[in-house]
Amino acid sequence: MHCEPFLVLCMSDVIQGPSLLNFKIIGNNKTFYDRCSTNRNCKCSNLTDGILADCSALNLTKSPYFEERVVSVNLSCNLLTYLPEEGYLPAKLKYLDLAKNKISKFRKGELTPFSTTHNIISLNLSSNFLSLDVDTYYTGVFQNLKCLKYLDVSNNSNEDKKYYCPDKVFQDLSSLQSLLIDGVKNVTFGKGFSTLRNLTFLTITGIVAKGIITREYFDNFPNLEYRYISYNGVAHN
Fold first, then answer.
1. Residue 213 pLDDT more than 60?
2. pLDDT tens digit string along 48-86?
3. Which homologous superfamily does the CATH classification assign to the domain defined by 22-129?
């Protein structure tokens, strides 16, 4: 599978890594309701390689449809409880921001998640309700994201629940370079993460960041260049 070069568009106000770059927006930033989305309140802007559809903070409970020229979708700060249904997002989508919604599960159906959006290279699911367990992260949930290079699933864990980090699920993310994820008490990152040879940037958030972390905690991340522990919005390396 051919994957696009990595460039992250920062769309929400979550903390991002040091290697992230912003797109240069061209044109006069005019909104085109009939050019990018079925929701007329979404703002459409020209990018160098397509269209950005900004549908953030609209109190949406369901994703609108997006025009095929859209390469970046911002649905952050809404009321979504699931990922957008298959077919709602354009096939050429590269950047998807779903931060700060109410998503607690990935859909289970005939189509696995992201079946029609194989080209995504940046996915932000931070500040939702996705528990770090095998029920939520079921086998195959990431199997269509072979091109994904940036994944943020931080600030999702619930400290009143026991967790088991489903490391085997993350093995499908063979192109992943940057990962932001919750660390939870008495849980280490399993051997499944050791197959992520391209992963060089890691941020740990959540409960464990408030305690003591030993070197063994990172044994299954063989190629890390940047390692950050974040709590209360403050990152420490």
1. yes
2. 999 999 999 999 999 999 999 999 999 999 999 999 998
3. Ribonuclease Inhibitor (3.80.10.10)
- The span from the CA of 130 to the CA of 158, in Å, is 9
CB 112 within 8 A of CB 141: yes
Structure tokens at 36: 């990018």
Burial of 150 (C-beta count, 10 Å sphere; 0-12/13-18/19+):
buried
The enclosing H or E element of 235 equals strand 234-236
pTM of the predicted model, to two decimals? 0.83
What tokens were used for 156? 């999702």
Q: State the residue for tokens 């770059």.
A: 21
pLDDT tens, position by position, 94-131: 999 999 999 999 988 778 899 999 999 999 999 999 98
Q: Angle CA(171)–CA(175)–CA(178) in degrees, nearest 5?
A: 90
Do the beta carbons of residue 79 and residue 61 sit within 8 Å? yes
46: helix, strand or coil: strand
Three-state DSSP class for residue 47: strand
Cα angle for residues 227, 217, 104 (degrees, 5° grid): 80
- Map out the domains of the chain as residue ranges: 22-129
Query: Residue 27 has which token pair?
Result: 């044109």
Residue type, 30: K
In 3-state terms, what secondary structure has residue 228?
strand
